[in-house]
Design a protein that fits this description.
About 50% of the residues lie in helices and about 10% in strands. It has about 450 residues and is α/β, with parallel strands linked by helices. The protein starts with a helix and ends with a helix.
């Protein structure tokens, strides 16, 4: 027994010494006292304590085990009680928080891709092989009705844009792309191959790069449709810079190593229902935390709205000019359309749409921020006043002006339902048919 106690003490001392001298001995991957070094030191200290306890060690171990087990049981019961309290007292807030967690709106900027992966040059792509909003092996949204065609027998289309043309919130058969295939095939009377290259949150620069990569692989379309507008404005609103991708400032912070890394303990705590209950409770009532009375946007960054709007439109049209030049070289035509939003056009709004137009939704605060709405309308006005139909540029923001039924589905103010997708596709189909029949 004495030999075992001595061996435990020596082994414990060695573990503690190794953890303390790991950097000098070259056993540590980095500098400073790491998490692994801490665990090794704790293990070594436990062996040393066990060597001093001797015969009392089994009794002490059983007592400590019982204490830990009781603490786990109490913590589990408290966590379940916190969940019950939330469901009874703040069920709507709980549902909203869960939705934001699932859709990437909590801890990450709004409108980020929900299921995505890093992609060279364009920053992100949807994950391949996803069900529901289905994707193919390359992360492109699947379009029912699209068929492979040869140059002689059919018409090949590319659709480029953000979440609206991706089809956020609608089934594969109800996206703009799916309706566009049906509409164009009826008017053109020939099979249609449509590749939906849209991705959630994309801007025209990312779309241009996507087009270039398809051309590089020898995938040449007959007509390319760009559906833009909102995301061009939103990225500028976020960062105060025109021509950048969404969440530019947050991405820069991560890439430059300026983002604080969460500890394991912090992540475990914030995964509990107790943490969520405390967070929800302290955002309201007597003990509520007061949030800043302003949003971080181009205005709070001191950027002039009019000059920013001019830059947004200039850069977007510059990308369109590059796409046109590619079309001249490769033999395809381009359509450049700015999409409808709930804040542009003159649609008669339903009750649900009016709540989007005027309301403030947690996670979508930009929707009620006058700085965002003013910049959006100014950019749309500049684009529409300078759009040249002869160059394929057009604004279709008024496509829902005569529609009384609801088309806008969520607080983003741009996502639309199947009815909206079908009407938008019909308008785009007219433009596609015109371009396809132009010599």
């Amino acid at each position: 027994m004495a030999i075992l106690r001595l061996a435990a003490g020596i082994a414990g001392a060695i573990f503690v010494a190794v953890s303390l001298l790991a950097d000098r001995l070259g056993l540590s991957a980095g500098s400073g006292f790491s998490r692994n070094q801490t665990l090794i030191a704790i293990f070594g200290a436990g062996l040393i304590i066990a060597s001093f306890l001797g015969r009392r060690f089994p009794q002490a171990y059983r007592g400590l085990s019982l204490l830990v087990l009781n603490l786990i049981v109490l913590a589990t019961m408290a966590d379940l009680a916190a969940l019950v309290i939330m469901k009874l007292s703040c069920s709507s807030e709980l549902a909203l928080r869960i939705r934001k967690i699932e859709e990437g709106g909590l801890g990450r900027p709004v409108n980020a891709p929900r299921q995505g992966e890093y992609a060279a040059w364009v920053v992100w792509h949807a994950l391949p092989g996803q069900p529901g909003e289905s994707t193919d092996s390359l992360g492109h949204r699947i379009t029912p009705g699209s068929v492979l065609v040869s140059d002689e027998e059919g018409l090949r289309l590319f659709l480029l844009g953000g979440s609206t043309s991706w089809g956020s919130g609608v089934a594969d058969s109800e996206t703009v792309a799916a309706f566009l295939v049906r509409s164009v095939s009826r008017s053109a009377d020939r099979p249609i191959e449509l590749l939906n290259l849209s991705q959630v949150g994309y801007v025209s620069t990312q779309e241009l790069i996507e087009l270039e990569m398809q051309l590089r692989e020898g995938n040449i379309p007959d007509v390319v449709v760009f559906l833009d507008g909102f995301n061009e404005v939103f990225t500028a609103y976020q960062s105060g810079r025109a021509g950048v991708h969404q969440n530019f400032l947050q991405t820069a912070t991560l890439l430059e190593g300026r983002a604080a890394q969460s500890s394991l303990a912090w992540q475990l705590w914030h995964a509990t229902d107790i943490s969520m209950l405390i967070d929800l409770s302290t955002r309201s009532g007597v003990f509520g935390r007061h949030e800043p009375d302003y949003l971080v946007n181009y205005g709070s960054l001191g950027i002039d709205r009019d000059s920013l709007a001019c830059e947004v439109v200039r850069i977007c049209r510059g990308n369109y000019e590059l796409a046109r030049r590619l079309g001249y070289s490769y033999g395809f035509r381009c359509i450049f359309a700015w999409q409808p939003t709930i804040w542009t056009g003159t649609k008669s709004l339903t009750v649900g749409e009016d709540s989007i137009f005027t309301g403030a939704f947690p996670g979508y605060e930009f929707a009620s921020d006058s700085a965002m709405i003013d910049l959006l309308r100014e950019c749309y006005s500049l684009f529409e006043s300078n759009a040249l139909d002869s160059l394929g540029e057009t604004s279709i923001t008024g496509v829902f002006d005569s529609v009384s039924a609801r088309v806008y589905t969520d607080p983003s103010g741009v996502h639309i339902n199947a009815l909206g997708d079908s009407l938008l596709a019909e308008r785009i189909a007219e433009l596609v048919t015109r371009e396809a029949n132009t010599d």
